[in-house]
Amino acid sequence: MRPDGARPTIIGPDSGPEAPFPLRMKGEVISGFGRGSKEVYMPLSIFLSREERKNKRMDEPKERKKADRKAQLGIPTANIPVEGIPWIEDAQSGVYFGWSSILLPPTHPDLSPRPTSALLPASALDAGWRVYPMVMSIGYNPFYKNTVRSAEVHVLHQFGKDFYGSEMRVKIEGYIRPEYDYVSVESLVEDINMDIEVAKSSLEREGWRELGRDPWLWAAEGARE
């Protein structure tokens, strides 16, 4: 249950993240669970391990029912695998924030208009990369009664179309709060909206905004993997 009281509006020192951050993960976006943006208003990507995807297929009718219910709420969702991510199993459950990048297909509507103050160089923009702030939860999402631990990324951008099959990269810069169960959708939405504002305010600082210029986010040659 969420504790009472005011929440911090800024995370971390102005100079930038502290250890163990940043944390990185990447993969191809595949079809996912579904969640409801009519309630929470944000695109969502879900990272699943191979075993989690296997279990999801084994219980497909039940998962489809969950997906249908969540899809009625309107949040587009996607999955990318987490094999080879050394830190994910030991990560503390809760809400994180940072930067996400997506290599959009040539026909994707969000390639136009071209950003005028982009974090990326012209060559990355030409290739189809776009960088957005994100909020990410790691855990079971008690409100939705998830039975597998997953990493769900909320990309802070309203997309005109899904981006299944695209390469996605996530660079986690900090930790916002633990995960909670909620008594209502309204209280969930309130906390998610606060998470978004905390992420935006934290990343707007110069020492944090520059982290969105990391060449790793657009797979630049020679960038750290």
Describe the structure.
- The protein is 24% helix and 24% strand.
- The protein is built from six helices and eight strands.
- The protein has helices at residues 37-40, 50-58, 60-71, 122-127, 185-203, 206-209, and strands at 23-28, 30-31, 44-48, 78-81, 94-103, 129-139, 150-155, 167-177.
- An eight-stranded mixed sheet has the order 1-8-5-6-7-3-4-2.
- The model is unreliable at 32-44 and 56-77 (pLDDT under 50).
Mean pLDDT: 78
The 3D shape can be described as globular
Name the structural class: alpha+beta
Number of distinct beta strands? 8
Query: Approximately how much beta-strand content do the residues carry?
Result: 15-25%
What is the N-to-C succession of helices and strands? EEHEHHEEHEEEHH
Number of helical segments with 4 or more residues: 6
Distance between the termini: 38 Å
Helix content: 10-25%
Strand order of the largest sheet: 1-8-5-6-7-3-4-2
Radius of gyration: 17 Å
> What kind of sheet is the major sheet?
8 strands, mixed
Ranges where pLDDT stays below 50 over 5 or more residues in a row are: 32-44, 56-77
What are the main properties of this structure?
225 residues, alpha+beta, globular, 24% helix, 6 helices, 8 strands, 8-stranded mixed beta sheet
SSE blueprint:
Blueprint: E1 23-28, E2 30-31, H1 37-40, E3 44-48, H2 50-58, H3 60-71, E4 78-81, E5 94-103, H4 122-127, E6 129-139, E7 150-155, E8 167-177, H5 185-203, H6 206-209
Parallel strand pairs: 3-4
Antiparallel strand pairs: 1-8, 2-4, 3-7, 5-6, 5-8, 6-7
